[in-house]
């Protein structure tokens, strides 16, 4: 059969020509050199990426620290200026009290009017800073979060309700500064 197609046998011999050991070693060395060059380039690329990522991380870390520091400064300033604003709103009240005390010959009516005006100033200053009175009307259900029962009395109204307020309470932004001191009805 090899006589049917003699060119096929010749081409097979041309492709499988024997390679000398020196040529094989040279080819292997060239392949290793190419692989080493490729790996060296890949290592260099990875090192550059690593350096870039490390720099990005350090920048992000520094930015986060700066943001945290700025936030702390803003909180500190807010606290400082909130107290400053509150104190500033009380200055007219202090001025009114001093002016009232400077009057040596005031009538009872003048003293009362001055006291009422000063109290109005004080309440206005407190309200501007969201300090609100807790002054429950009679028959209000006792609320232990806003009221402190001082005593219990027998009364005609529903049990455990406010009969009278002995001292007003105050809250600021839904937080009780001082509960209202109240008398409540005793259980029947």
Can you tell me the number of structural domains?
2
Rounded mean pLDDT is 89
The CATH architecture category of the largest domain equals: Alpha-Beta Complex
Structural class, from helix and strand content?
alpha+beta
Given this structure, which CATH class of the largest domain is correct? Answer: Alpha Beta
Spans of at least 5 consecutive residues with low confidence = 9-14
**Would you report the number of β strands?**
6
What is the CATH T-level topology of the largest domain?
Hemagglutinin Ectodomain, Chain B
The topology string of helices and strands comes to HHHEEEEEE
Question: N-to-C terminal Cα separation, in Å?
Answer: 124 Å
Strand count, sense and barrel status of the largest sheet are: 3 strands, antiparallel
TL;DR?
This protein has about 190 residues and is of the alpha+beta class.
Describe this structure in words.
With 188 residues, the chain is of the alpha+beta class. It has 2 domains: 19-129, Alpha-Beta Complex (Hemagglutinin Ectodomain, Chain B); 131-188, Nucleotide Exchange Factor Grpe, Chain A, domain 2, CATH 2.30.22. The protein is built from 3 helices and 6 strands, in the order αααββββββ. A 3-stranded antiparallel β-sheet has the order 1-4-5. Helix 2 packs antiparallel against helix 3 (108-128). The longest helix has 82 residues, at 21-102.
